Amino acid sequence: MDGKLLIEMRKGLSMHVQRFRHWLLTWAFFLPLLWNGQAQATIVVVDPLDVMTQKSEVVVHAVVYAQEVKTDSRGRIITLTLVEVLDGMKGASKGEQLIIYQVGGSLNGISQWIAGNHRFAAGEEFLLFGVRYENMIVSYGVGIGKFKVIRDETGVLVVEDVNDVVAAYRQQGGPMKMEPATPRVFTALDDFKELVRDIASVPAQPKLLTPNLKVINPKALKPLRQPMKPAQPMQPLSPTKL
Question: What whole-number distance in Å separates Cα of residue 213 and Cα of residue 223?
Answer without folding.
Answer: 21
